[in-house]
Give the backbone structure.
Amino acid sequence: MGGGQRPETLAIVLGDQLDEASAALRGLVPGRDVVLMMEVAGESRHVPSHVQRTVLFLSAMRHFAADLRGRGLRVEYVTLDEPDNTGTLAGEIERAVRKLRPRRVRCVRPGEWRVLAMVMESCERAGVGAEIVEDEHFFTTPDEFAAWAQGRRGLTMEFFYREQRRKTGYLMQGRGAAAKPEGGVWNLDAENRESFGRDGPSPMPPAPPRFEPDAITREVMACVERVLPDLPGRLEPDAGFSWPVTRAQALKALQAFVRERLTGFGPYEDAMWSTSPATYHSVLSPLLNLKLLNPRECCEAAIAAYRAGKVPLQSAEAFVRQLIGWREFIRGVYWLEGPEYARRNGLGSHGRLPEFYWTGQTDMNCLRQCVGQVLDTSYTHHIQRLMVLGNFALLAGVHPKAISDWFLGLYADGVDWVTLPNTLGMVMHADARADAPKGVTGVVGTKPYAASGKYIDRMSDYCRGCRYDPGERHGPEACPFTVLYWDFLIRHRETLRANQRMAMILKNVDRMTRETVVQIGIDADLLRRRLGVTPGGEGSRADGKRRGGDSNS
């Protein structure tokens, strides 16, 4: 870490804050102020981080640092393999403060309670004040969301989304109180649930553009393999790293999505197909979460394509809803609920995460396909996450924090503010407040997103290559999803009775014979033991931190 005159401001830029218009950088004076960027092993190890996720973060950081230097700013950059690297953000912040003796430290609000506390405490220990500024990348601040949420019996994303539409003017006709939603309806989600049918997508959706690693990325890859050789996931030779790592590449990825795949995004948002991993999805979430893209420019590009007659309203609205509705809502929940949120376990699930989440080695074809895709690319789209990978964890009774940490570490877009509420709330239905009134069973989701193998069969081609029958709920040919689905409803039926959205399906459970209920329970228990979900089962293993696909590690 170099010397030089004492800076007025030391601006910390974290790995998910690569925003060229960041408030942390505003007003910095070349030659007087300093930017601090840090690569630390601890951030890839506090949960096991996919090797491609780690390479993406570090390569994007190094490219961003080069851009800042090109703007004349002094950047103190700590590399992963620097001999004096302490391995933690706290250690590097304290080391930089003591070395540089800045009059103040400035940092944009981190994307994690843990990191926010780390920044504040390390500055206090080093004897300097920390100024935390709001992240202007987002449309809504945590305080604004808290004001919106105050006094509400429950938080409903749809109502929040409508206010966001009015606030931004996106896809609105008219102005002010007289403004109406484009097309006369706020939400076209009912038109976003088509499957590809038995023959699959025709024509096949174009794959997202690939970006070959440049010299900086190759240096990062070598460094990560050397310093962090035990990270899960695949990098070479099974899968090549092709993520955008610069602002220019991120813009090309956005343009390609709007031009080539946005048209089909609306109708086929929930569809899955084994030979088209991304289908019509944008695959822009990692770039948004790193702040290489701004959600405003993404929304405006989609709306411009709609106005030009190039994409239908159902696709433009679906994409805008994900950005100004769901993404902002989830972040608001994260900051509203506080650090205690991560400890919630509303359904009392305590099972272990099965071994196949780290290896992809399972005879369930849908899970083999989806886990394999994660290991190869550090990505799947949201229905694969919710209705395959997450759904199985929910039905099997995996501890919500175990699957949340897996999503956080294994996905290229994993940042705590987005991963935790999506997993704890949407996937695992585990985030109910202790004082929630009867009938309000979760903060994020109004019902569990539980489904049997029949849903996966309807929305994908996965079941065709599988030995299990999604229509059977007990016996040797029964799909594990179907067995565990009915067992889930049986085990939690008294808890779920207060939820009006579950009333109809629970009537099917009530009509079951005692013999059927007992047999489903026996089959489900055997499944959980065989998969190692139940402690002491055949697949149990304490340490999942290893390179995916290596069954001998």
